[in-house]
From TrEMBL:
It is found in: Golgi apparatus, trans-Golgi network; Recycling endosome. Keywords: Coiled coil, Endosome, Golgi apparatus, Lipid transport, Protein transport, Transport. Its main location: Golgi. Residues 1-29 are annotated as: Disordered. This is Vacuolar protein sorting-associated protein 51 homolog. The keyword Transport applies. Belongs to the VPS51 family. InterPro entries: Cullin_repeat-like_dom_sf, Vps51.
Length: 779
C-alpha cells in the first residue's frame, strides 16, 4: 500500500542515528499493550466499548471473508448496482489512503523531532557526566587537604583557643582603660549619642568590678564626664532654638542616662508647646494681614499644615517613641486637643472671610489639603478627636458655601429683574440698532440667564463631591450634603425664592407692587408658568443625576414646587389684569367725573378718552399675545359690531313709553329691572383668569366697564349727556367685542351703562341709531 511506501524512508534514513528496536518479544508486547490501553482498544485492535461482529460479510469486522462477500454481492445485486458499489468502494479506499498518508507524514515529523531531542539529550548528558567526574576529583582533593591540615593543627588547637580568648579580654580591658579619654573626646565634639552608647556598653562591667581600685577609678572618671554630658543635654533641652528632631534626641539620651521620665515628659511637652504656639502666632498675624497682603486661603492652609500640623505630628511621634512605655497617653491627648482647638479657631476665622463665590475650587482644594493632613494625626494618635473636629469644620464650610451660593443666586435674580425693568422702561429707538428687546426675547434671556447661573453654581458645588477629594467619601457628602444641602438648601430654596419674590410684586398700591410695570408682571407670570411646566422638573432631575441624590430623607416633591410656581403665576396674572383694568378705569372715571353732563352740548364726535381706551386695549392685546396663547372664544354673531343699545331695556321701555303712563310707572320699572337682573347670568368682575390672551383681556374689560358703570350711576345727565353716553358705548361696542371670550358680556355691561344713564337723565331723549352709527364711523 501507499502508506507503507511513504513510511519506508523514515526507517532507512534514521537507521544510522537511532537504536534498532528491542529484539526482546516481551518488551514489544509490553509496549504494545500500553498503547492499546492508552487508545482504549482490545486485543483485536477494536474499541473496548464496540461489540465484535462475527458476520463474514461485515467489511469492518475481524471475521471478514472477501470470497463470501463477493459471492453475496453477485447473487443479490444487479450489474448496475455492482458497478455503483465498486465506484463507492474505490472512493472509500482512496479516502482511506489519503488519511493514512497524512497520518504517516504527521507522525514522521514527530519521529524526526523526537530523534533530534534524544540525540541532543545524549550529548548533554555526556558533557554533564564529564563535569561531574571533574567535580568529584576536586572534592576528593579538598577532603585530603582538610584532613592533612586538621592532623597538623590538632596538637596546637587548645593553645590557639586560649590565646584568642586572652586577646579578646585584652581588647575589652583596653576599651575600659581608654573609655574616659574617649568620652572626653566625644564631649568636645558634641557626639553625645556616641558617648552615651560607649558608656552604656561599659557600665555593667564597671559596676561589676567596682571593688577593684583600677576599675573604681575608671568608673568615677566616667561618672564625672557623664554628669557634664547630662548637664549639657539639659541646657540644650532648655534652649528655645532647638529643633524638634534635636529635642527628641536630647530626651532620648537623657532617658538612657536614667533621667526621671515624668519630668522629661513635662519639659518635652512644655518646650513643644512654646514652639507650636509660635507657629500659631505666625498664622494669627497672617490672618490679620490677609486683607492687606491679599493672601488666598490655600496659601494660609498650606502654611498651617506645613508648619503647625507637621510640627504637631512630629511631636506626637516623638512623644510616643520616647514616653509611651513610661506613662499613659492622657497628657498627650490633652496637649494635642488644646493646641488643635486654637488652630481650628484660626482656620474657621479664615474660612469665614471667604465671601466671594467666583472660584470655589480654591476653597475646596484648601479644605481637602486641611482634611488630608489631619488624617496623619488619626494614624499617629488613634482615638484623638482632632480629625473628627476637622471634618466638622469642612462640613460647616460646605454648608456656609451653599448659603453663600444661594444668596448669590438671589442677588443675581434681583439684578436680572432690574435689567429687565430698565429694558422695559427704555424708550424704543427708531433704528433696529436702538430697538429694545421684545417681551419674548426678555423672557428667554431672563430664563436662560437664571438657568445658566444655576448650572454654574451646581458645577462649583459639585467640586465638594469629586472623587479626588479626600472628604468626599464621608457619609455627610454622600448623603445629607447632596439631598438636604444642594437639592433642598440650594435648588429648592432658590425656586421657592423666585416664586415668593414674584408674589411680592402683587402687593397693594403704595407698597412695592404699586410701582411695578404691568409688563413685568406679565413676564414674571409667564416665567413662573414655564417653571411649573418644565423648568422645575428639568432642574431637579439634573441635580439628582449630577449629585446622585438618594431620597433617604424627606425632600420636597416636584409636584409641590410646580403647584407653588403655578400659584405664583396665577397671582401675578390676576394682579396684571387688576392693574391694567385700574389704569383704564382711572381714565374712564376722570372722564366721567370732570364733565358737566347736564349742560353739555349735543354730541358730534366720540370722546377722545374712548379712543384711548380702545387703543390701550389693543396694545394690551398685542402685549399679552406675545407671551400667551389665544384661548377659546364663543361663536360670535354676524352683527356683533353693529349691536344697538336702547335707552331702556325691553321691560323698561314698554312701561316708560306705554300710553297708560302713571306716576307709579317708575316704581314698576325698577321692580321689573331688578327681577330681570335676578334671572340674568351673574358677572364676576374679579374672577381668576386663565393662562390665555382671551381670558386676560376679558378680565381687563370687565373691570373697565364695571368702573364706567359705577361712575355713570353717580352722575346726573341731561338730554345731550345721555346721547353722548350712547355714542361712547356704541363706539366701545364696535371694537371691544373682539377681545373678549363672550361678546354677550360686553353687550350686557354696555347696555347697563346706557340704561343707568337714562335712569339718571333729567330729559331722557335718546339719539337716533342711524345718527349714532354715522358719528362712530366718522370718529
Amino acid at each position: 500500500p501507499l502508506w507503507i511506501k511513504a513510511a519506508a524512508p523514515s526507517t532507512n534514513n534514521n537507521s544510522s542515528s537511532t537504536t534498532p528496536p528491542d529484539s526482546d518479544p516481551n518488551g514489544r508486547r509490553r509496549i504494545h499493550s500500553m498503547l492499546k490501553l492508552y487508545y482504549g482498544l482490545n486485543e483485536e485492535g477494536k474499541a473496548a466499548d464496540q461489540a465484535e461482529s462475527l458476520d463474514p460479510c461485515d467489511i469492518n469486522g475481524p471475521h471478514f471473508d472477501p470470497e463470501v462477500y463477493l459471492n453475496k454481492l453477485r447473487k443479490e445485486c444487479s450489474l448496475g448496482e455492482l458497478m455503483d458499489h465498486e465506484s463507492c468502494m474505490v472512493k472509500q479506499i482512496r479516502s482511506l489512503d489519503s488519511d493514512m498518508q497524512t497520518l504517516v507524514y504527521e507522525n514522521y515529523n514527530k519521529f524526526i523531532s523526537a530523534t533530534d531531542t534524544i540525540r541532543k539529550m545524549k550529548n548533554d548528558f555526556k558533557k554533564m557526566e564529564d563535569e561531574m567526574d571533574c567535580l568529584s576529583a576536586n572534592m576528593a582533593s579538598i577532603t585530603e587537604f582538610s584532613a592533612r591540615i586538621s592532623g597538623t593543627l590538632q596538637d596546637q588547637h587548645a593553645q590557639i583557643t586560649k590565646l584568642s580568648g586572652v586577646h579578646t579580654l585584652l581588647r575589652k580591658l583596653q576599651f575600659l582603660f581608654e573609655l574616659p579619654a574617649r568620652l572626653n573626646k566625644c564631649l568636645e565634639l558634641q557626639a553625645y549619642a556616641q558617648a552615651v552608647s560607649a558608656h552604656r556598653r561599659a557600665r555593667c562591667v564597671l559596676q561589676q568590678y567596682s571593688h577593684m581600685p583600677s576599675f573604681r577609678g575608671i568608673q568615677d572618671d566616667c561618672h564625672v564626664i557623664m554628669e557634664q554630658l547630662a548637664q549639657q543635654l539639659r541646657q540644650k533641652f532648655r534652649d528655645g532654638g532647638s529643633s524638634a528632631k534635636d529635642l527628641s534626641e536630647c530626651v532620648e539620651l537623657l532617658l538612657q542616662l536614667d533621667e526621671p521620665a515624668e519630668e522629661l515628659c513635662d519639659k518635652f511637652l512644655s518646650h513643644a508647646q512654646s514652639r507650636l504656639e509660635a507657629d500659631l502666632q505666625g498664622l494669627e498675624a497672617e490672618l490679620k494681614d490677609s486683607a492687606i497682603t491679599d493672601t488666598d486661603i490655600l496659601e494660609f492652609i498650606d502654611r498651617g499644615c506645613n508648619e503647625f500640623v507637621s510640627s504637631l505630628c512630629l511631636v506626637i511621634a516623638s512623644y510616643q517613641e520616647l514616653f509611651i512605655n513610661q506613662m499613659a497617653n492622657g497628657k498627650l491627648h490633652v496637649f494635642v486637643d488644646t493646641l488643635a482647638a486654637r488652630y481650628f479657631s484660626l482656620v474657621e476665622r479664615r474660612i469665614q472671610e471667604e465671601k466671594g463665590v467666583s472660584d470655589n475650587s480654591l476653597l475646596v482644594r484648601a479644605l481637602d489639603r486641611f482634611h488630608r493632613r489631619l488624617q496623619a494625626i488619626s494614624k499617629l494618635l488613634p482615638g484623638s478627636a482632632v480629625p473628627s473636629h476637622g471634618t466638622e469644620i469642612v462640613v460647616q464650610a460646605a454648608r456656609e458655601r451653599i448659603k453663600q451660593y444661594l444668596s448669590a443666586l438671589q442677588t443675581f435674580y434681583h439684578d436680572s429683574l432690574t435689567d429687565v425693568r430698565q429694558a422695559l422702561a427704555a424708550p424704543r429707538g427708531a433704528s433696529s440698532k436702538d430697538a429694545t428687546p421684545s417681551l419674548p426675547e426678555l423672557l428667554a434671556s431672563l430664563s436662560n440667564f437664571i438657568l445658566n447661573q444655576l448650572k454654574s453654581v451646581l458645577a462649583s458645588v459639585h467640586l465638594f463631591t469629586a472623587k479626588d477629594i479626600t472628604f468626599s467619601n464621608k457619609p455627610y457628602f454622600k448623603g445629607e450634603f447632596c439631598s438636604q444641602g444642594v437639592r433642598e438648601g440650594l435648588v429648592v430654596s432658590f425656586i421657592k425664592f423666585i416664586c415668593q419674590s414674584s408674589r411680592q410684586y402683587c402687593e397693594s398700591a403704595g407698597d412695592r407692587g404699586g410701582s411695578t410695570p404691568p409688563a413685568l408682571l406679565l413676564l414674571l407670570s409667564r416665567l413662573c408658568l414655564d417653571y411649573e411646566t418644565s423648568t422645575i422638573s428639568y432642574i431637579l432631575t439634573l441635580t439628582d443625576e449630577q449629585f446622585l441624590v438618594q431620597h433617604h430623607t424627606p425632600v420636597t416633591p416636584v409636584t409641590a414646587l410646580c403647584a407653588e410656581a403655578r400659584e405664583a403665576a396665577q397671582k401675578l396674572l390676576n394682579h396684571y389684569v387688576k392693574v391694567q383694568g385700574l389704569i383704564i378705569s382711572q381714565m374712564l372715571r376722570k372722564s366721567v367725573e370732570t364733565r358737566d353732563w347736564v349742560n353739555t352740548i349735543e354730541p358730534r364726535n366720540v370722546r377722545a378718552v374712548m379712543k384711548r381706551v380702545v387703543e390701550d386695549t389693543t396694545s394690551i392685546d398685542v402685549q399679552v399675545g406675545l407671551l400667551y396663547e389665544e384661548g377659546v372664544r364663543k361663536a360670535h354673531s354676524s352683527d356683533s359690531s353693529k349691536r344697538t343699545f336702547s335707552v331702556y331695556s325691553s321691560s323698561r321701555q314698554q312701561i316708560r313709553y306705554a300710553p297708560s303712563y302713571t306716576p307709579s310707572a317708575p316704581m314698576d320699572t325698577n321692580l321689573l329691572s331688578n327681577i330681570h337682573k335676578l334671572f340674568s347670568e351673574r358677572i364676576d368682575i374679579f374672577s381668576p383668569v386663565e393662562f390665555n390672551k382671551v381670558s386676560v383681556l376679558t378680565g381687563i374689560i370687565k373691570i373697565s366697564l364695571k368702573t364706567f358703570l359705577e361712575c355713570v350711576r353717580l352722575r346726573t345727565f341731561g338730554r345731550y349727556g345721555l346721547q353722548q353716553i350712547q355714542v361712547d358705548c356704541h363706539y366701545l361696542q364696535m371694537y371691544l367685542w373682539r377681545f373678549v371670550s363672550d361678546e354677550n358680556l360686553v353687550h350686557f355691561l354696555l347696555d347697563e351703562i346706557v340704561c343707568s344713564a337714562a335712569h339718571r337723565c333729567l330729559d331722557p331723549s335718546p339719539m337716533e341709531q342711524s345718527v349714532i352709527e354715522v358719528i362712530c364711523e366718522r370718529g
